[in-house]
Amino acid sequence: MKNKKYTIADISEMLGVSKATVSRSITGAPGVSDALRDKVLKLVEEVGYQPNTVARGLSTGKLNIIALILGDMRNPFYADLAFGIQKLLTAHNYMVMIFNSEYDSKRELEFIQLTEQFHFAGLILITAQNKEISDKLKQLNLPKVLVNRIFPDYDGDSVLTDNFQAGYEAALHLIELGHKEIGFIAGHLYSSAATHRFEGYRQALRNYSLPFFEEYVFHSDLKMETGYELSKSFLALKKRPTAMLCINDMTSLGFMDGCKEAGIRFPDDLSLVSF
C-alpha cells in the first residue's frame, strides 16, 4: 500500500470519516475518541501517509518551522549547537531551518524578514549584531530567542554565557603560565560576546599590573580567512607578544595556519587560547 502517495482525503475516504477527524487524530487534537484515533493512526502507518507540513502551515497561518540563524556553519561550536537544538525541537514536532549568514548583517536581516513573511513558528538567532537588527526584533511578532548575544535595549528571551568571565579566565590562564605580554584578536565591535570577552581580558591585565599594548590587538570578522590574513600583521610586528587570545576557534585556525607557514611553533614560540 505504501507505493502510492496517499493524501488526507484518501485516508478520510478509506475510513469513512471527515478530513478534519483525520487531521485531529494525527495532531493529537481533542474531539476524537481514543478508539477512532487509534484506527486512524494505524491506517496512516500502514499506508505511509506523511502530512504536508507546509500546506498545513499555510492553511493555519503558521508554519511548524523554527528558523535558526547562525554565522558560520563550519564552526564546530555552531554545528554542535544546531544539532542539540534540532534534536530537542524535533522531539516537540518542530522542524528546524538553518540559515548561514556568514556574519553578514544584511543577510541576517533578510532571514529575519523571511521568518515573518512565511509565518514561521519561531526564531533562534545566534549572530545578532547591530541596531537595525535590534529594532527589527522589537517589531517581530513571533517567539524569538537570542543565543550568546544581547542588545542593551532587548528585553526578550535569551540564553547567555558569561563572556566577561570567559575572557578574564582565558587571560588568567596565560598569566599563570608566566606570560607578561599578551595580545588579543578581537571580534566585531558591536557583538556583545566579543566586547565582553575583550573587557575580561583587559581586566585581567589590570588586576595583575601587566601592560596593555594597542598594537597587540587585532580586529577580525570571526572568519578563518581573516585569521590567516591577520597572521601577516602579527608577523610584521618588530616585537611580538608571547601569547595571544583569539575571539573564536575559526579565526584562530586561520591565524595558526599563517603563523605555521612562517615557522612559528605552538606553544613553543607562541601560546594561543581561543573561544
UniProtKB/TrEMBL annotation:
Keywords: DNA-binding, Repressor, Transcription, Transcription regulation
PROSITE patterns found in the cross-reference section: HTH_LACI_2 (PS50932)
Pfam families in alphabetical order: LacI, Peripla_BP_1
Top-level taxon in the UniProt lineage: Bacteria
Record-annotated HTH lacI-type domain positions: 6-60
Listed InterPro entries: HTH_LacI, Lambda_DNA-bd_dom_sf, Peripla_BP/Lac1_sug-bd_dom, Peripla_BP_I
SMART domains from the UniProt entry: HTH_LACI
A molecular function GO annotation: transcription cis-regulatory region binding
Name of the protein: LacI family transcriptional regulator
Organism of provenance: Lachnotalea glycerini
